[in-house]
């Protein structure tokens, strides 16, 4: 690890002032410290923001919640109002990492965690995300984890966060502060597709500090859930995941929200499937037709082709579960397995 300056900020303005060129904010450190140790990132200095007063979850005037950037993943998942109004978010967070890591990991850091592509983590191989212009080893290499949607000739990796898939269906807003003032970024515009600049994961500008995530009032989210397919029961990122919320009237879909993880460079809001399903009877046949319409733009190779039926089956199964009145959280509350 190369030497760097380390400073601790006590206020947001102080954090913004302390950050110099080539520096980075340090929150829980569960992703950034790994990168520094592995030699895949260098910084001129770290500004520790972990002591900033951004640890509250408060109600907003519009009936939503404002989650401070330093609320830990554990505290967010355990908060009664999150569990009640946005079960998909609590379930998504609990599907990720481990208890110890969720205790350290913060809301802001989770938004900015970087890909788990094996080539990104191996400095001996080309990776456009780690070293722009060097090439993408994953395109013709180990392809099991590659994206289905929105990849480019420069990068085929996927976004690793579970929490962010839930935030995508909730139309969250990321609040960022810079020396110039505050900026509010709609969640759909926060993460980006790789295009020809895959080194940029988000639209956050250099020097901006995330101070909060705002969750609008989303009544349909009270009936929502998250499901994740992974290779181990813990410590494993999503092969494919689905965040879903469903509102029916007389057996007809009045509102549906769907987002998929493990399939694109950003949490993938399945807008095509949502449009296809809205107004239709809530049958497995229509659920399948909706995700088929979404999959029309999917591109896969021999090693990640398994993700297509996995995603199709998961979407149908999750929507059936919501239609039939069950969610993992409800089963747990009733004393069953979560
Ligand atoms: C073994 C392991 C397994 C994991 N499994 C999963 C999983 O299954 N699912 C999942 O979703 N995640 C998983 N994670 C990732 C984990 O969720 C992230 O490491 C964590 O959320 C990052 O948060 P942090 O506060 O530690 O961020 P840090 O490591 O402190 O920072 C990450 C990045 O965000 C920047 N940053 C942090 N806070 C701010 C801010 N407020 N404003 C601006 N920039 C900021 C930092 O500069 C850095 O670039 C796993 C991690 C590990 C180590």
TrEMBL record:
InterPro entries hit by this protein: CO_DH_flav_C, CO_DH_flav_C_dom_sf, Diverse_Substr_Oxidored, FAD-bd_PCMH, FAD-bd_PCMH-like_sf, FAD-bd_PCMH_sub1, FAD-bd_PCMH_sub2, Mopterin_DH_FAD-bd
A GO term for molecular function: oxidoreductase activity
Annotated protein name in UniProt: Oxidoreductase
Residue span, FAD-binding PCMH-type domain: 1-220
Cross-referenced PROSITE patterns: FAD_PCMH
Keyword Nuclease on entry: no
Organism: Deinococcus wulumuqiensis
Transmembrane helix found in the keyword field: no
Pfam family, one: FAD_binding_5
Record keywords, A-Z: Plasmid
